[in-house]
Design a protein that fits this description.
With about 70 residues, the chain is mostly helical. The longest helix is centred in the first third of the chain and has 20 residues. The protein is globular.
Length: about 70
Amino acid sequence: MEKAREAATDSPSALKIKGNWNEMKGKLKQKFANLTDDDVLYEKGKEDELYGRLQKRLGKTRAEVDNILNEL
């Protein structure tokens, strides 16, 4: 039941992050050469920290980062 509740509250890109992050981070680093390995480090349960690092490095809002991730 808890997993269903988590899935219902996650954004589409958050669900993608959980599924195939290694592929996505490679595409992100290709698209944005200024991203470091530390910037794209994903740890389960710390998605907000990942978003924060990406927002800071790319100079984008959370919605813009979400759109970038959805386009990958």
